[in-house]
Amino acid sequence: VEPISLGLALAGVLTGYISYPRLYCLFAECCSQKRSLSRETLLKDLDSKLFGQHLAKKIILNAVSGFISNPKPKKPLTLSLHGWTGTGKNFVSKIIAENIYEGGLNSDFVHLFVATLHFPHASNITLYKARAEWGDQLQQWIRGNVSACARSIFIFDEMDKMHAGLIDAIKPFLDYYELVDRISYQKAIFIFLSNAGAEKITDVALDFWRSGKQREEIKLKDMEHALSVSVFNNKNSGFWHSSLIDRNLIDYFVPFLPLEYKHLKMCIRVEMQARGYEVDEDIVSRVADEMTFFPKEERIFSDKGCKTVFTKLDYYYDD
Ligand SMILES: Nc1ncnc2c1ncn2[C@@H]1O[C@H](COP(=O)(O)OP(=O)(O)OP(=O)(O)O)[C@@H](O)[C@H]1O
């Protein structure tokens, strides 16, 4: 048999087994690439990478794996992540993205929107004007991405600083509609990040600490009241919540607890290993000691979370 015919025959056999789209997906990123998210892998990732966030871990594991395994969800998954700076909200969004798409945040189907970067907050612009000027652009962007891939992930950072006109614009996509202008948004995932409610979350964590209870004993119900009071009543996020929460468009509120000294040390060790250094406990303690903690008297929680520990590490490795 000549090589060309053999090649053609082989290709024929192969394409019989592997359809064109599947063959294509071997070489390029496909929307349906990771059809089945593994609950075990997500659990393993959360357990090994995310420190000090037992509530967030549990909610995210159940919400994301349940949603992905549902072949016909009635609405898109909407998660609202709240908490102090540097406690892992962006980080966990990255873990979710990586468990659904190989490329994680770099995937063509994962989209990050930073309210203050993409549309500056202008308090003097009216709701109507903002909706008309920016809302249409935002809607087109979401529509375009979801029509290219139903399982698109949208991460909205700094949600509490987002103009009411934009929140108004994304509302129809979050609802229980089967189709909006002939497109279904029911398989999409929307993750909203904000610092709204951070003080109240911290108050609860502090109460537990002061009464000698373990942080892991904090239950979601201990946080619910704290979150609803502060988030509903916050003047900056009031509109967001009156329009999204009152209509039950948010599926899960996910509180992120402030991080303690021991969690900072865990973050520092991970970073040392990532840079290829052996973990040096002396440096770990020195970097953690440089961080600032609150409240003033007890000094329990890091005021920047794990956010700046990495730059402090540079000082010890300046070669
Ligand atoms: N709970 C955590 N467990 C492990 N690493 C963490 C945790 N929190 C933060 N980090 C580390 O610190 C970095 C910064 O945290 P991240 O960007 O997720 O904070 P954030 O909560 O989104 O803060 P902000 O509200 O300021 O946006 C992460 O990339 C991660 O490396």
Automatic annotation (TrEMBL):
<keyword id="KW-0472">Membrane</keyword>
<dbReference type="GO" id="GO:0030426">
    <property type="term" value="C:growth cone"/>
</dbReference>
<dbReference type="GO" id="GO:0045202">
    <property type="term" value="C:synapse"/>
</dbReference>
<keyword id="KW-0770">Synapse</keyword>
<dbReference type="GO" id="GO:0019894">
    <property type="term" value="F:kinesin binding"/>
</dbReference>
<dbReference type="GO" id="GO:0005524">
    <property type="term" value="F:ATP binding"/>
</dbReference>
<dbReference type="Pfam" id="PF21376">
    <property type="entry name" value="TOR1A_C"/>
</dbReference>
<comment type="similarity">
    <text>Belongs to the ClpA/ClpB family. Torsin subfamily.</text>
</comment>
<feature type="domain" description="Torsin-1A C-terminal">
    <location>
        <begin position="259"/>
        <end position="316"/>
    </location>
</feature>
<dbReference type="GO" id="GO:0034504">
    <property type="term" value="P:protein localization to nucleus"/>
</dbReference>
<dbReference type="InterPro" id="IPR049337">
    <property type="entry name" value="TOR1A_C"/>
</dbReference>
<keyword id="KW-0378">Hydrolase</keyword>
<dbReference type="GO" id="GO:0071763">
    <property type="term" value="P:nuclear membrane organization"/>
</dbReference>
<protein>
    <recommendedName>
        <fullName>Torsin</fullName>
    </recommendedName>
</protein>
<dbReference type="GO" id="GO:0030659">
    <property type="term" value="C:cytoplasmic vesicle membrane"/>
</dbReference>
<keyword id="KW-0067">ATP-binding</keyword>
<keyword id="KW-0256">Endoplasmic reticulum</keyword>
<keyword id="KW-0547">Nucleotide-binding</keyword>
<dbReference type="InterPro" id="IPR010448">
    <property type="entry name" value="Torsin"/>
</dbReference>
<keyword id="KW-0966">Cell projection</keyword>
<dbReference type="GO" id="GO:0031965">
    <property type="term" value="C:nuclear membrane"/>
</dbReference>
<feature type="binding site">
    <location>
        <begin position="83"/>
        <end position="90"/>
    </location>
    <ligand>
        <name>ATP</name>
    </ligand>
</feature>
<keyword id="KW-0325">Glycoprotein</keyword>
<comment type="subunit">
    <text>Homohexamer. Interacts with TOR1B; the interaction may be specific of neural tissues. Interacts (ATP-bound) with TOR1AIP1 and TOR1AIP2; the interactions induce ATPase activity. Interacts with KLHL14; preferentially when ATP-free. Interacts with KLC1 (via TPR repeats); the interaction associates TOR1A with the kinesin oligomeric complex. Interacts with COPS4; the interaction associates TOR1A with the CSN complex. Interacts with SNAPIN; the interaction is direct and associates SNAPIN with the CSN complex. Interacts with STON2.</text>
</comment>
<keyword id="KW-0732">Signal</keyword>
<dbReference type="InterPro" id="IPR001270">
    <property type="entry name" value="ClpA/B"/>
</dbReference>
<dbReference type="InterPro" id="IPR027417">
    <property type="entry name" value="P-loop_NTPase"/>
</dbReference>
<keyword id="KW-0968">Cytoplasmic vesicle</keyword>
<keyword id="KW-0539">Nucleus</keyword>
<dbReference type="GO" id="GO:0016887">
    <property type="term" value="F:ATP hydrolysis activity"/>
</dbReference>
<dbReference type="GO" id="GO:0005788">
    <property type="term" value="C:endoplasmic reticulum lumen"/>
</dbReference>
<dbReference type="InterPro" id="IPR017378">
    <property type="entry name" value="Torsin_1/2"/>
</dbReference>
<dbReference type="Pfam" id="PF06309">
    <property type="entry name" value="Torsin"/>
</dbReference>
